[in-house]
Design goal:
Blueprint (H helix, E strand, L loop, with lengths): L37 H23 L10 H36 L15 H6 L7 H14 L1
Helix pairs in contact: 1-2
The structure holds zinc ion.
Length: 149
């Protein structure tokens, strides 16, 4: 009896031909996904810089509460501070989203819906560049979130 080693045959992964020399010289869209949304990347980077500017301003303009002698002034300063902090939190969240979007651009996963895997239409990306969901999935998600409340 022949003991056949059950050598699992590796699925014949076809060696991907490197087309370095055979690059199509057509004027069509570039083949690399990275360069798919250069204008959106610019938008994101601009927005990112704007937020950093703004947050920096909020922080430097924060009143020094302890330096205020009047109690009512202190109270309003605290309100201001809470407000600033809320802005900061919101901006930070957005900043994080922008960073994540830029990261997705680097890994060529940008513009793909997290939920259904479809391409998110360019118009939606342009309007809301940090989105990770197509409009259908976003609607579904909002419905789910609404139902949870
Ligand atoms: Zn989707």
């Amino acid at each position: 009896m022949k003991a056949r080693p059950s050598a699992k045959r590796a699925p014949s992964t076809r060696p991907s031909v490197t087309l370095a020399s055979a690059r199509p010289a057509s004027k069509k869209k570039p083949a690399t996904k990275k360069a798919k949304y250069p204008d959106i990347r610019r938008d994101l980077e601009r927005q990112r810089a704007a937020i950093i500017d703004e947050v920096g301003e909020v922080l430097t303009n924060r009143p020094d509460i302890a330096a205020l002698p009047d109690v009512s002034d202190q109270a309003s300063a605290e309100v201001d501070q809470n407000f600033s902090m809320r802005i900061r939190e919101r901006e930070q969240k957005l900043l994080k989203k922008i960073d994540e979007a830029l990261e997705r651009m680097d890994t060529a996963t940008y513009g793909i819906c997290e939920r259904c895997g479809e391409d998110i239409p360019y118009k939606r990306l342009k309007a809301r560049p940090v989105t990770t969901l197509c409009i259908e999935c976003k609607t579904l998600e909002e419905q789910e979130e609404g139902a949870r409340r």
